[in-house]
Records
---
Amino acid sequence: MNIVKRTYKDQVVEYLYDQILDGTLMPGDQVKESSLSDEMGISRAPIREALKELMSNGLIEYQPQVGNFITQLSPKETIDAYITRGVLEGFAISTTSELFSEDDIDELINLAKRMEHYADKNNHKMVVKVGDDFHSLLISKNKNIQLTEYTRSLSQKLHILFHRHWSKLYNREEISNRHLRIVESIQSGSPADIEQVIREHYTETGTKIADLQREQLIEDEKNTKYKD
């Protein structure tokens, strides 16, 4: 039996991650240790540990003499993050594609269909959750520890962006089909094709989200001028 031990630090990370996902905390919002300590009924020590971990994953940024804030990515930073994830994951899978069994392929197809199901139900959190399961299985054959760590550190940041924007990017069939194309590339057995498909998978989404961010920046600027 697997026993999962969740420390206070882990619980704080999960608590903040969920608040960012559901929009309770938005980019630019300040995260105060004292408020978290009161809300969760714990000391500040594990909160500081959690904030350090979230900083290392790019979800929190520290401003000297001011405090901790939810990271607000620029359009370029968004594209850079997605391209980097595509490069890492593309390499990881293209070099391990022969290790995927028929059961692995069946599970990947099942996960892609489940994403479509939850997208149809407009269940944003489960779309992201099942998508994470899909991509975790894809990189599970990789034994390069550094690559795995870098990939996972990017995943939380990308999950939040995708959770916030996916319904404006893809319909439910597109959600499924984009992931099934990755499965088909693995079945083809061509490392070059696998790497290209996965890079395109991430670059497309990153570009679309960056475009939405630019539109929002323009809209915010117009609203600011209107108020003035």
---
Amino acid sequence: AIHNVDEQERRRQYCERIERAVNRLPRIERDLIRERYLADDAEYITDQNVYSFKLQISEGTYSKRRWRAFYKLALSLNIAAVKGKEGES
């Protein structure tokens, strides 16, 4: 029973950490993440719906901004993996 309470608290703190990191993003990137991944109906929304109707930007611009937003989130959350050249340690 104690494990369940601890796990629930750990999950709540993790979600709050994600929300704080998203809130620190520039407005355009923050809006993209919220519209596509954090909305109540996010599982039913497609990328095309977000970039065409909600943000009204091109697919290429959307892809670049999404990549940049996730990269910044990964850095903020200390989960970014830097890929080096082969043979480097």
---
Amino acid sequence: NNTPHASTGFCPFFLLFGREPRLPVDDWLARPTPAAATSSMDWVRHHHQQLKQAHDKAYKHLENAAAA
């Protein structure tokens, strides 16, 4: 669920949770963790906006894939 789908352009995990998955290999490679939000409401607003944009883009990609 972490591989981008050809028709949506996003991985299913991102469309469901609004963030990239954190995998065990990320700890091995010492990849940084996402920065914490200043407040819960800021996080909720940002998360909602990010999910809305991703869903809108995925819908447009699906429309283009269906037309092709």
---
Amino acid sequence: MKKKLINIAIDGHSSCGKSSIAKCISKEFNMTYIDSGAMYRAITLYCIENEIIFENAIDYTLLLQSLKKIDISFNYNIALSITETFLNGKNVEHLIRDSRVSDQVSSISKIREVRDKLIDFQQKICSKKNVVMDGRDIGTKVMPDADVKFFITADVSVRAQRRFDELKTNNKDLTYAKVLANLNKRDSDDVGRKINPLLKAVDAIVIDNTFLSFVNQNELVFNLIKNHN
């Protein structure tokens, strides 16, 4: 019997491990992984590099004119076993994880035209099924009919420490306090924005990984998916 193709939506707070979980699900169940946050980061990077964002101010007119020039794609790097993000044909996977992008991405994510462009793109990908996607509004807006939905969260101080540990090697000027402040702001922006705010879908399964190891978390998530099938 042919395996039933399903879509899995993963939402949650910043730096709670959504992408890591989604990648593991992708590998375990042979699904296509889409990092929706990377799309917003790619547009933010474009805005920074083209001075659409300048000294924390956004040139909305220029941004709207530029949206049609922005092409985002993904390519699986076999050697590194990761999916990399491409902006107008250029590999920007490393650049979009930089703190200067993290500081601005919430502001870009609030803009309706940006969200409309990316949600349309994301829904076209999901229509083919067998997709696991993570973000802020996947289960509520992008894939409201997803077969399995998870909402991932953790204490913000724990998330900040994890993020700081991940980034400090390549950013000597970074401090835990700065990371914590950034996450608090992003949480506030995500929950408070008028357009598609971060919400837990009514049928989403909540996973609080504050005290869960990554291995135990994956075991829990994998079993929930298998039980669904």
